[in-house]
Amino acid sequence: MIVEAGHYALVLAFALSLVLAVVPMWGAAARDPALMAVARPAAFAMLVMVALSYGALTWAYVGSDFSVMNVVQNSHSMKPLAYKISGVWANHEGSMLLWVLILALFAGLVAARGGRMPARLLSNVLAVQGAVAAAFLLFILTTSNPFARVAPAPFEGDGLNPILQDPGLAIHPPLLYLGYVGFSIAFSFAVGALIEGRIDAVWARFVRPWTLTAWCFLTLGIAMGSYWAYYELGWGGWWFWDPVENASLMPWLAGTALLHSTVVMEKRDALKVWTMLLSILAFSLSLIGTFLVRSGVLTSVHSFASDPARGVFILAILVVFIGGALTLFAWRAPVLRQGGVFAPVSREGALVLNNLLLATACATVFVGTLYPLALEAVTGWWSPDNPSKISVGAPFFNATFLPLAFPLMLAIPFGQSLAWKRGDLLGVAQRLAFAIAVGVVVAIVILALTVGGPVLAPVGVGLGVYLILGSATEIATRAWRRGAGLGVMLRRAAGLPRSAWGTALSHAGVGVTVIGIAATAWGVESIVTLQPGQSTRLGDYTVTLEAVTPRNGPDYRETVARLRVTRDGQSLGVLEPGKRVMVGRSMPTSEAGLMTLGLGQVYASVGEIEPNAAGLRLYWKPMVLLIWLGAVVMALGGGLSLLDRRARIGAPAPARAAVPAPAE
Amino acid sequence: MTRKQRRLTVIGAALAVIGVAAGLVLFAMRDTIVFFYGPSEIAAKGVQPGTRLRIGGLVKEGTLQRGPDQTVRFEVTDTAKDVPVRYRGLLPDLFREGQGVVAEGVLEADGVFKADSVLAKHDEKYMPREVADALKKQGVWQHAPEKTGATPASAQK
């Protein structure tokens, strides 16, 4: 009964999304306040209905209702409760429902906070959001119904794909979706404003917090996905340039560019046309990502099922929204008035450079990801029996993406230190001299200490140090005053706007990640077969196989290799990588064993297990945690910026604002 | 600086960056792209030794040999032709004789394919599409048997 109610709520949500898509936009065009007033209640009602529907599916999972097809295929009565709940989005139907839930959530949030927005803009924005929701709700209802029943109901479910049963899975998709789908707000704002034909700095102020929110979640989501792949897939890699990963990286790159161009638009009323285009592109790339992952054109852990009807439907959504938005853009963009003027060497100029490099890097990833698909489609059409199949892997992306990322990183500290309108490059270089010098010295010293080792790694570490110190320099410069004591300067630093701290923190986070990536070059890998009692060297560590033992978990059986890690005779602990067989499954999965030592990790996975020996793949990964810590720092910086008073436009000034803000 | 000059600067910079990127892409396309072939195609196309490629097919029954330190040898077959493969490392969990496999590596002068990565099915349900395609091409593709206890008769798609 509750399952049918959930299905019904989904149908109601679709009806409401249609109302939301049509009525307010009509109202905005006709300047009819009564019709425009429909927008907010409709957005709330849609959110409530989608949430009810989602709750009903979760209820079916928690209660292991095996009369629901989706539950049968993806759950098992013995599954721990947390995985029953996260299992809801570990399959195609449920994850699309989560997608729409988050879309509706953002519509609801915009409606809730939109009281101070111009009525016509709010109506148009919510209407566009409603149209996107309508398309995806129709997609779920017609091709991916999560509430389909099965009769007779089986006694037990199939269980979840074992590699999806993991805490990482519980967090990764919701975070990623909050990011992906969060860009829909920027898209709706851009399309809404283009329809209305009024785009100014105020628009940028409204849209920036939403973009920033989406960006923070996407950053965390990608980092989480990367860490999950690292420890779950047993290959020890943290980024594979897999098309599915690229599908999340492209919106991130476009979103990062958007974040920066919106700043220029807000502060200087410039780059309007470009910002509109980026807003459309960021969400378009999210849609393309959804298409790539969900249509089955790519096969990976993410493509739960491939049904051509679904692919065609999402492709149609893609064409309508991306094509429609770009057409509208082409039609309206020439109307936009040019904004403030700036010299090439200025904060604006640096941000244009940032956008240029990010957009180009994004384009190279796009080409590398889609070229194999396009080539196969074209040659398959040419000669159906023998399409050309190629794979574009890490070497391509390393050769194209990294040369574009490098100058971007070099430019970051300069960009954040340059003045608006007209900057003083020499002055900034003098201020950054310390950061530059330390970065160079670090690179040279490491290079000298590791002669014959990797060459690019020391350069990478130097770059990371320069980025972190560059951010510190920016804060120090703004807090510094001639003749002032340390206490005064610390108070001045604390009094800097939160957005200044947020910017510095995020940019330092980039540096942290860069150091982590560079350090992977000093990793040690060893592939050995050990018998119990035997040891092997791994960098500075010694790994000893103590025993190979079977063990039982709540819903799995596993064979574990007990590995003791020692350094200079001192035991550091035990690693327990294993092979796991879930209840109801026949095939084993590998579980990696991880030991964190400082910022590095010892990583072990087992291959072939014989009665008296275990095949092992061992890695020592120095500073590897910095890769993800850096991403967390970036997101924290974004969060800090969000707390800035300026992000909450029109908020009544708190009493503390009476304290004079430090002059800049 | 006039508005026109400013615009020219931006356009010039944009063209420079895009030009560099296009150059990088074209350069990388020539060197880093890897083609996917089945054993019959390797024989038919006369692939030069030293070329990097991906091959796919079935692991031929009775050909898997394990050597010391995780070295393995096996043959990849599409039932018409076979290619011997050498690999050092951990094989995927679902690597089995008679099952589909994709290997990436270099074809050496003696006709042995030296693989540096080997992919098999992710689990019972999922198989790399290239494996499935290679098998379909040779007509040895079978759908995985339905595992659900009850037949999903009333499931509406």
TrEMBL record, chain A:
InterPro entries: CcmF_C, Cyt_c_assembly, Cyt_c_biogenesis, Cyt_c_biogenesis_CcmF. The chain crosses the membrane at residues 6-30, 42-62, 96-114, 121-141, 175-195, 207-229, 249-266, 273-292, 312-331, 352-374, 394-420, 432-453, 459-480, 501-524, 625-643. Residues 89-295 form the Cytochrome c assembly protein domain. The keyword Lyase applies. GO terms for molecular function: lyase activity. The keyword 4Fe-4S does not apply. It holds the Pfam family CcmF_C. It is found in: Cell inner membrane. Keywords: Cell inner membrane, Cell membrane, Cytochrome c-type biogenesis, Lyase, Membrane, Transmembrane, Transmembrane helix. It is a multi-pass membrane protein. Its main location: membrane. Residues 315-645 form the Cytochrome c-type biogenesis protein CcmF C-terminal domain. PANTHER family: CYTOCHROME C ASSEMBLY PROTEIN-RELATED, CYTOCHROME C-TYPE BIOGENESIS PROTEIN CCMF. Belongs to the CcmF/CycK/Ccl1/NrfE/CcsA family. Required for the biogenesis of c-type cytochromes. Possible subunit of a heme lyase. This is Heme lyase CcmF/NrfE family subunit. It comes from Alsobacter ponti.
Automatic annotation (TrEMBL), chain B:
It is found in: Cell membrane; Membrane. Heme binds at residues 122, 126. SUPFAM superfamilies: Heme chaperone CcmE. Keywords: Cell membrane, Cytochrome c-type biogenesis, Heme, Iron, Membrane, Metal-binding, Signal-anchor, Transmembrane, Transmembrane helix. The keyword Ligase does not apply. Its main location: membrane. Residues 29-157 are extracellular. InterPro entries: CcmE (IPR004329), CcmE-like_sf (IPR036127), NA-bd_OB-fold (IPR012340). Residues 1-7 are cytoplasmic. Heme chaperone required for the biogenesis of c-type cytochromes. Transiently binds heme delivered by CcmC and transfers the heme to apo-cytochromes in a process facilitated by CcmF and CcmH. This is Cytochrome c-type biogenesis protein CcmE. It comes from Alsobacter ponti.
